[in-house]
Amino acid sequence: MKKVWTILVRLFFVLFVGITAYLMFTSTVRVNVHDTHEIAREVVRRAANELKNKELKNSVKIVQKSGLDNELLKSLPKSYHRNFSYVTLYDLSVSYQQNGELTAKNLGLHSDNRLEKLVNYFMVKEINQELKGNSKEVNHAINLFHYFMFGVALCFILAVLLILFGKYWASLALLIATSGGFFFLQYFANGAVNRLESQLYTEMSLTTSNYLWFSLIIGIVITIVWPICLAVGRNKMRKK
After folding, report:
1. Spatial distance between the Cα atoms of 168 and 146, rounded to a whole number of angstroms
2. Which of 58, 74, 139, 156 is 20 to 30 A away from residue 231, measured at CA?
């Protein structure tokens, strides 16, 4: 009966470690663009100067001179946001490594009219130019992200195994996985936002989802409670 109870307690902790890991890898940070109209204005200005298609270039200039660009801008949403988790960032990085560039679909950019298509085209173009211009640095960052992500996953697996074997070290492995995973995602997303701000000339911000905070809190609670429960259980076994 004692062994059954011990197994049930350990499985209970393993369940919560699993929940923590799931939330850590699927919960998101949100990149917020506060003024898409300003980006669009900059894109229209660049389009008028950079487009090689003369017909399209002249069309853009006509729209500018007539003042219709301001009317068209009103059709765009004032703000934009995109959620990124470990899973979506991994898919995004793999897509970039395979294709050598990102697409509007990768970035979650949708277009309902020609202006939105033009804005999306130049935004993706600017981002891809930045990525290609710093390809070594980008590939290094992607490899670092992959290694760290797999490292976090291994720490979660190690924590589960150590809990099943009744080891105190499970708390250390879980603490590294939760705190490291949480702060690295913030660091990586912040770095991406800063680079985008410099390319798109607009203010952005980062919002952490509540679920990601929950994963950190649950992980820290388990790291504290697990060794206490383990010590109490062993003391009771010794007394009996």
Report:
1. 28
2. 156
Helix (H) or strand (E) holding 112: none
Q: Which residues contact 1 (CB under 8 A, 6 or more apart)?
A: none
DSSP 8-state secondary structure symbol assigned to residue 165: T
- What does the pLDDT look like over 121-135, one tens digit per residue? 777 777 787 778 777
Residue 200 token pair: 């798109």
Tell me the per-residue pLDDT of 145-185, one tens digit each, with 9 for 90 and over: 899 999 999 999 999 999 999 999 999 999 999 999 999 88
If one counts every other C-beta atom within 10 angstroms of the C-beta of residue 217, the result is 14
The C-alpha atoms of residue 62 and residue 56 are separated, in whole angstroms, by 10
Whether pTM exceeds 0.90: no
Quote the tokens at residue 174: 């879980």
CA angle in degrees (0–180, nearest 5) for 102-89-160: 160
Distance, C-alpha 110 to centroid of its chain: 19
The H-or-E segment that residue 30 falls in is strand 29-33
Helix (H, G, I), strand (E, B) or coil at 25: helix
Ramachandran quadrant class, 31 (left: phi over 0; alpha: psi -120 to 50; beta: rest): beta
- Residue 6 contacts residue 233 (beta carbons within 8 Å): yes
Residues in the chain, total: 240
Rounded CA-CA distance 183/205 in Å is 16
